Amino acid sequence: MPSRIPSHLPYPIFPIPFFMPTYVYQEILPDGSDGEAFEYIQRMADEPLKTHPKTGNPVRKVFHSPNVSSQYTEGATKSKLTDRNIEKHGFTRYEKDKVTGRYHKTAGKDKRAPDVVDANKLKEIQKNGLV
């Protein structure tokens, strides 16, 4: 995405689907039964379609819940990564000390997990295939 919008333009330059919602329409066949369901990108201010763009048959707008993800939001992630939740699921969290380069245990109750891990020693152990 561009960081600046040219001052002579009244709107940012992006692909149209980025700013315009996608609507679902259902084609109504001549015998009154449901035909093809299709998506159509249009501005919210535009009038709803009355006919299918290709066949010319009448259409109706299909209303459904919006596709908004709440499972992978920043808040949901933070709540899953609380110390209490990490310990509850048997994990251990380490945070790096920027001065020493060592990792200190901040969450987890596993007695086998050391309280401090030296990153350089860990790399050496991994290189030798011991971990």
Q: What's a concise summary of this model?
A:
The protein has helices at 16-19, 74-80, 83-88, 119-127; strands at residues 22-28, 34-41, 59-62, 93-96, 102-107, 116-118. The chain has 131 residues and is α+β, with helices and mostly antiparallel strands.
Backbone structural class: alpha+beta
Largest sheet: 3 strands, antiparallel
**Spatial strand order of the main sheet:** 2-1-3
Count of individual helical segments: 4
Hey, roughly how much beta strand do the residues contain?
A: 15-25%
Oligomer: single chain
What order do the SSEs take from the amino end to the carboxyl end, as H and E?
HEEEHHEEEH
Q: Tell me, what's the shape?
A: rod-shaped
| Portion in helices | 10-25%
C-alpha end-to-end distance: 42 Å
Rounded to an integer in angstroms, the radius of gyration calculated over CA atoms is: 28 Å
Number of domains: 2
Mean pLDDT: 81
* pLDDT < 50 stretches: 1-6, 9-14
Number of strands: 6
